[in-house]
Amino acid sequence: xxxxxxxxxxxxxxxxxxxxxxxxxxxxxxxxxxxxxxxxxxxxxxxxxxxxxxxxxxxxxxxxxxxxxxxxxxxxxxxxxxxxxxxxxxxxxxxxxxxxxxxxxxxxxxxxxxxxxxxxxxxxxxxxxxxxxxxxxxxxxxxxxxxxxxxxxxxxxxxxxxxxxxxxxxxxxxxxxxxxxxxxxxxxxxxxxxxxxxxxxxxxxxxxxxxxxxxxxxxxxxxxxxxxxxxxxxxxxxxxxxxxxxxxxxxxxxxxxxxxxxxxxxxxxxxx
Length: 272
Fold this sequence. Notes:
272 residues
């Protein structure tokens, strides 16, 4: 009596290897619209909360400049030039704080949009992705606030000491400067997370990153010129150093992703 042939093992998938659900192009657009609306609502709520707590953060924001003025034995005061200058600072700070408050939810929405195209074992990295992205963003802000800004501002202001010209710091101009530096560094510190996602989709590899390092250095130099609060070369090098370190960390992240994918492919090939 004929026996039925055993099912082909290569055609079966383990439950944890099943790909995400397939979606049409229109479904992707609907999903994207849903994620964008959800993110915008979160940002709106975050801005309301930010306006409620902004006044408490103003003294925190001006501390790097106060440290720089104190180190140069100058008057530890920052001024505003118009009657509404302080109010404008209060509103702007509240709005940016709102964006920061909403950022975890926005990152979660981004991941929900990307996750359906991944395998189940890759979707398990949701919490790790959100935590890593927020940690690196805050780490970039922390490095800028506690490390780079006091050092650079002290150095920049020292050029005016001992002469007939003294600094008169406008609080709104200072806020614009510190915003570019801190947000810029926070975004730059997301480099390993971005490389992690690109490596999952085989868009970049460790070899690609190392082969194009000279182009990466050009981009790093341009970014350092944007976020650096002064135009001198020494300050630019100070800001470039953590970016170069992050780039090589990103290479290691890509290497780990590629090795893991290769190991899973070999395991699946051996089981077939």
